[in-house]
Amino acid sequence: METGFNTRAVQAGEFRDATVGNVTTPIFETSTFYNPNPNPSAYTDHTRGKPFMYTRWGNPTLEALERKYASLDLVEESLSFSTGMGAITSTVLSVLRKGDKLVSVKELYGETFIFFSRFLPSIGIGVDFVKLDQLNSGEVKLDNYAAIYTESVVNPTLGVCDLELLGKMSREAEIPLIVDATFASPYNQNPSRFGASFTLHSGTKYIGGHSDILLGLAGFDKKEMESVWAKRKMLGTSPDPIQAYLGLRGIKTLGLRMKAHNENGLEVAKFLAENKRVSKVLYPGLEVSEYNGIAKRNLRGFGGMVSFELSGGLKSAKEMAKKLKIFSYAPSLGGVESLFTLPAETSHLSLSQEERKEAGISEGLVRMSVGVEDKEDLIEDLKIALE
Ligand SMILES: Cc1ncc(COP(=O)(O)O)c(C=O)c1O
Questions:
Q1: What is the pLDDT of residue 217?
Q2: Are residues 282 and 270 both part of a single domain?
Q3: Residues in the chain with pLDDT < 70?
Q4: Which residue's CA is the nearest one to ligand 1's atom 16?
């Protein structure tokens, strides 16, 4: 039976043991398993088709999360990671070899940019950065590259990558397309449907949904499992079972939460766009956004991330932050609670000022993660702070 997103979010992947009769997946809080397992009908771990042996290799609680996530992001296989950066580093290192060259957008989450610009070259992997708009124009030649990397909605300037076009280009060039879809979440977008070979998420954000865990997820075809799994095992980027359990619990309500994030994000963006103290609003759901057309073709909803600048710049943004009662002045995103941060001070602090400028991040740019509180209250909070 073909089922809907919320049904899969609740039902898929759960580790139900008929001999026990449990409904929800337990936390398999064990580092090790009998090996060899003497039971001829022992459960086999999806990562390698053999009984579980050691939790860094695989664990039933991790597997339940991986199966549930895979059913939501329409991928054949998936692995969970200790953090989003764990998913990004392990996956990218499983794809690229010394001497390879990666092409990536410039507008990236700060730590991903550091990984690409500082670390990959140090191990003999070249990286060329191009502007998102250049990539969307279809002009970038992909010959000579071993892979292409993008964020489907970029952090924090909220440009939208034309995955439809990029999927086609990467197929023609026969190179893997790696997509970090953290801002969209599997509810708003499934990059695999556009031809992405690898979909990555910081599960810390919308998937976990409650700002209480760190987690990463990667989705891909079956044939990629061995290589990504080997990197997770070697780098030690597997999550622990409690964290995987909390991710599994959080993802069950992803559809319900995203619906509220999409609604609130749009309302907040519209409110800001009409306020005279706001000089610029970045939100792909606004009709006036240059990314609105691409967003409509690539996304099912525009999400809860809204960035903006005040005409008073950095000083006004800091003053505004002090007056907010509901929005917390804190980094990260994707939780049920609304957050307000300055990327130059948090997510993109490790970049040089020049690099931030290149990525379109002014010192006074504000990024908000609009939560699922009542939208009238959120708008009132912003209105008072702006006044
Ligand atoms: C788009 C994006 N990708 C990846 C990450 C890294 O995730 P984590 O903090 O879980 O390592 C972040 C963190 O903010 C992010 O915003």
A1: 99
A2: yes
A3: none
A4: 109
What pLDDT does 232 receive?
Answer: 98
Do 226 and 292 sit in the same domain of this protein? no
pLDDT for 203 equals 98
Ligand 1: atom nearest CA of 151 is: 1
Statement to judge: residues 61 and 119 lie in one domain: yes
Amino acid making up residue 319: E
Q: Which residues are catalytic?
A: 56, 109, 180, 205
- In this structure, the answer to whether residues 246 and 265 fall within a common structural domain is no
Look at residues 221, 251, 281 and tell me which one is the last residue of a structural domain: 251
CATH classification of the domain holding 229: 3.40.640.10
Q: What's the gap in Å between 155 CA and the centre of ligand 1?
A: 9
Q: Is 373 exposed, middle or buried (0-12, 13-18, 19+ CB in 10 A)?
A: middle
Q: What confidence score (pLDDT) does residue 103 get?
A: 98
pLDDT for the residue 58: 98
Model pLDDT for residues 130-177, shown as the tens digit of each residue? 999 999 999 999 999 999 999 999 999 999 999 999 999 999 999 999
Residue burial 116-147, b: 16+ Cβ < 10 Å; e: rest: bbeebeeeebebebbbbeebbeeebebeebbb
Best residue for ligand 1 mutational test, from 182, 214, 235 (most atoms within 8 Å of Cβ): 182
Nearest residue (by CA) to ligand 1, atom 8, is 84
Strand order of the β-sheet with 77-81 is 77-81, 216-220, 198-202, 177-180, 147-151, 101-105, 126-130
Report CA(9)–ligand 1 centroid distance (Å).
22
Closest ligand 1 atom to 216 CA: 10
The pTM score is: 0.98
> Pick from 251, 271, 293: which residue ends a domain?
251
Number of domains into which the chain is organized: 2
